[in-house]
Amino acid sequence: MGNDSSNKEVEIPLYEVFIRSANGLEHRHVGSLHAADAEMAIMNARDVYVRRNEGVSIWVVPSACITASDPSSKEMLFGPSRDKIYRHPTFYNLPEGVRNI
Amino acid sequence: MYNQSLDKGPLKDDGRDQDEDRRIEFEHNVLAGYTVEPKDWMPEGYRKTLIRQMSQHAHSEVIGMLPEGDWILRAPTLKRKAILLAKVQDEGGHGLYLYSATETLGVSRDLLYEDLLHGRAKYSSIFNYPTLSWADVGVIGWLVDGAAIMNQIPLTQCSYGPYARAMVRICKEESFHQRQGFELLNEMMNGSEKQKEMVQNSVNRWWWPTVMMFGPEDKDSVHSKESRTWGIKRVTNDELRQNFIDVTVPQAEILGVDLPDPDIRWNEERGHYDFGEVDWTEFWRVVSGHGPCNRDRIEAKRKAWEEGVWVREAIMAHALNEKVVDRHG
Ligand SMILES: [Fe+2]
Ligand SMILES: [Fe+2]
After folding, report:
1. Given an 8 Å threshold on Cβ–Cβ distance, is B329 in contact with A68?
2. Is residue A42 part of a domain?
């Protein structure tokens, strides 16, 4: 799928599946599957990923619609936050005896 | 989405030499317990080893549906039929989790499956034995799924994230497989003489093939060393086999069946059960395609594949119509 030109034959589209395990929790990525359209992807996801009450809600997204960050740009994306330690409460020294802060 | 990043970067066929530094860093990270994710750089050998191991694992789950599937229509009660159906459906699900995890390495599932249908791919030797009686359904649950659990639990710690996560999900489901098998056998062992005989006969046939499921002895295992360096396989074949025998012997005693190995004996000094010599010629014969059912298994899969052509064509036509493929593919 995707832009991979080495796959000469077209495969049945790939979808990524996200499950909300209970109300109050976020949807979480659980894996992928092949389906003709979103409706079929949801039906397949029910059979593959929620056979034992694993969830109350399913999201499916065509895999090719996801843009992922490149691991080689890790520094650019995630580096800067590491040297801004003043963003963390542990950066600050408080005099002894101060409470509830 | 996964394959795109695999085409980038300086990795060539001889990437191992070019990327010596990256490889050393990679192995260092893996040793330190770092989990590798699909888009991360990885040595070509690591990727290939994973594709081989994970696709073989996926094929095993899917082929594994066949021996037990043979008994769905002949299950003795509605309860047992429902249980068996659920179990066989789980195995199909395991296959799908694993194919989907393998696809994150940039291979197409259709190509992997084609290899299976053309006899180019391996799968677990155990599924090339026939299920001759209802007791076999119980023995497969107890012994074969028991051995699979032994094998799969260390894989939840595998260095490749998607594989490890698939194994966590699979392991959760396997315990039902093993327990339903043991319960089924226990019921039969509390039944008539004929039922007890049926169980013993089944154990006699399945014991050695199960012991072989852990693969060749460590001294003959080709892929062990690099698999360990890369955190793909953390426990050796011999260790797994010993663990399996250690937990299974007491279970057999409770069940009241004899394991067909006169050399099984508790070894106080080692703190393990000793056991007899495995017939490795049989193992290699079955692995290389000459077991009792190799041909039937592939034949059954091929038939299903061919008879499903119209379904896949209809799916593709619909996908093209909906522009799911056009838009995104
Ligand atoms: Fe399984
Ligand atoms: Fe299983």
Report:
1. no
2. yes
Q: What is the pLDDT of residues B188-240, one digit of tens each?
A: 999 999 999 999 999 999 999 999 999 999 888 776 677 888 888 889 999 99
Nearest-angstrom CA–CA distance, A32 and B287: 30
Number of domains making up chain A: 1
What tokens were used for B271? Answer: 């703190």
Burial pattern B40-71, b for ≥16 Cβ within 10 A else e, equals: bbbbeebbebbbebbbbbbbbbbbbbbbbbbb
Pairing label, strands B272-274, A27-34? unpaired
| Per-residue pLDDT band at A5 (split at 50, 70, 90) | very low
Specify whether the CB–CB gap between B145 and B178 falls below 8 A: yes
Query: Nearest C-alpha of chain A: how many angstroms from B2?
Result: 8
What is the domain-level CATH number for residue A35? 3.10.20.520
Asked casually if ipTM beats, i.e. exceeds, 0.95, the reply is no
With beta carbons less than 8 A apart as the criterion, state whether A82 and A89 touch. no
The contact set of B with A (CB < 8 A) is 1-5, 7-9, 37, 39-41, 86, 89-90, 93, 96-97, 100-101, 103-104, 106, 108-110, 162, 165-166, 169, 173, 312, 315-316, 318-319, 322, 324-325, 327-329
Tokens 């197409």 -> residue: B108
Is the residue at A49 inside a domain? yes
